[in-house]
Structure formats: C-alpha cells, structure tokens
Design brief:
10% of the residues lie in helices and 46% in strands. It is built from 2 helices and 11 strands; from the N terminus they run βββαββββββαββ. Strands 2, 4, 5, 6, 9, 10 and 11 form a 7-stranded mixed beta sheet that branches. Strands 1-3-8-7 form a 4-stranded antiparallel beta sheet, with no helix packed on it.
C-alpha cells in the first residue's frame, strides 16, 4: 500500500509564499511519478504540477506556471510544492498524487494514489 503524507498547508496573505511537502516510502519515491492537484470549494479537482520519477521533467498548469515550483528530494523521499506570489484563487485543498504513468497525472485520469490533502488558504 502506497502512503502519501502531505504537510505544510496553512493561512497566508496574498502575495506570500508557502511550501507543501509530501512524504512517502523509498520504494514509492523511486518508482512513481508524483504531482499535486487541488480542489477549491464548489469546484472540480484540478491539476497543479507533476514531476517525473527521475526528477528531470516537470509540468505545470498554466494558472501556476512561473509562481509554483515542484521538486523532489531523493534523500528524504519527499516531493515539494513551493508556492510564491499566492493569490486568493489559489485557496484550495492540495493533494499529493503518485502514479506509474506520467500522462495519468498530467491529464488527471485514473491516478493510482492520493494523499489525504492539506488546506491552503490565501487571504486578500
């Protein structure tokens, strides 16, 4: 069973920064591509960013490109989402995901594993 444990959510003012972490097992970290999705109240879940298993390829939603950075730390088996220039519309529950298929994450289709989610609230 794959476990994804998110942390780092919280309340921040618009224009501020926040970093999310997603810790998992070494096996999962080595095998799986990983990413982040988010879901705002009353809205559908949407793709945010993904990073390949090797860490060499990243892909972002247009809405966060240039503001968010996804990275992974092999020594800590952890994936990060560094969020800068936050906007109130970034308010959502953020979910870490893992899948062996790169396109599944990029397209948000039939993803293997989801974390429990962490709340990010950006005040105006």
């Amino acid at each position: 069973q794959v476990q994804l444990v998110e942390s780092g959510g919280g309340l921040v003012q618009a224009g501020g920064s926040l970093s999310l972490s997603c810790a998992t097992s070494r096996r999962t970290f080595t095998i799986y591509h990983m990413g982040w999705f988010r879901q705002a109240p009353g809205k559908e879940r949407e793709f945010v960013a993904t990073i390949s298993g090797s860490g060499s390829i990243t892909y972002y939603a247009d809405s966060v490109k240039g503001r968010f950075t996804i990275s992974r730390d092999k020594g800590k088996n952890t994936v990060y989402l560094h969020m800068n220039s936050l906007k109130p519309e970034d308010t959502a529950v953020y979910y870490c995901v893992a899948d062996t298929a790169w396109d599944n994450i990029r397209r948000g289709f039939s993803i293997d594993y989801w974390g429990q989610g962490t709340q990010v609230t950006v005040s105006s």
